[in-house]
Fold these 2 entries.
Entry 1:
Amino acid sequence: MKKGSVFLGLLLLAANSFAQSYQHRASLSAGTVMFGSGDIGGFGFRAGYDRNLRRGEGAAPLLLGVEVAADLGIRKVQAVNPPAGSGFNESFYQTANAYFFPKLTYYPMRRFLSGLFLSSGLTAGYTMQSSELAVSRQDLGPVVYRRSVLDTKSYWIVGYGVEAGYDIELASRVWIAPRFSLFNFSDGEFLNVLMIKAAYRF
């Protein structure tokens, strides 16, 4: 009898733990990133985890989570036979960011547009940037080469981010969400991010 009671208690505990773990969410996101004023385009990737802090039935979800983010942007120039004049006026630039984005996510509307969510949080990470110090022209017969000297620097960055998106449920535990984010970093870098997120609740 005691063994049966112990087994039943363990079974109920496991069921309760599973029900609580259903509040966890994992997600992957990918999309486009515009750097600065929009003259530098690129792409980005996110891997995230969230946990619902509210367990009441019908309560609007309040998620505490973190994302690991990576962004790459590049402004290319034509190095072989560049256009006369303009090919040397433009400058090469490349930037790569990797950072953490801990955030709170809130769903403000429960009846109408219930999938709408708003997020905000701080960022901390690392950036590497390459830009041109000097540009020269080299003529080798019919071929013209654009030669440049690059300056590469890397340093730690902090900042903040805000975003809005909308969850579209595909199944009881699976959904996708278009999301638009804005990030501002301590080095003056500003990002406009448009992505699609795929998420799973467990």
Entry 2:
Amino acid sequence: MTRSKSNLPSLMDSFEQGARRISTPTAANSPGGSVDLPTKSPREVQARKERLKFIIAIVLFSIAGLWGAYQILNRPESPASAASKTVAISESGEVFMSFAMPNARPPWKNPKTGAMDVWPAEACWYDRSGEVRPDPVYVRVMPETSAKCPDCGRDVVISNPSPSAQRIKAAQERAAAQKAAGGK
């Protein structure tokens, strides 16, 4: 009995050492059959946490940027800009300066006749001589196509570029001066 009591402390020591070691198949050739786990310093652990935080931040900012770009590029028109659209009726050429735009693609329903013949209209600010007009001529333009201005013959497209505000103002002043002088 005394012999088993003397072995008891050595078994406890080996159990505590085994708890600090992990037995692996590669460690079978090492003395004792186990390998000590590598311990990382607090500095290494902190550096790893910082790298992980940085990677997570980059992923979140990328997702936010993609979501923002998607929202900007795929947003519907605001009701204020939609209400201020100028449209023309295809048969008569009548122009509506502010048309209540439905949430559908053109052509839209004519409020007078019920026919589906209302199309977007764009302003052409030039006359036959190439000068800027005081008031634009509105030309019916179908999406993804262009149309010829009946007054000057230029191509008119959706979001047709207009001359600068200074050139328009100068044309309006010339027209007012001609009207005051008794011209046309």
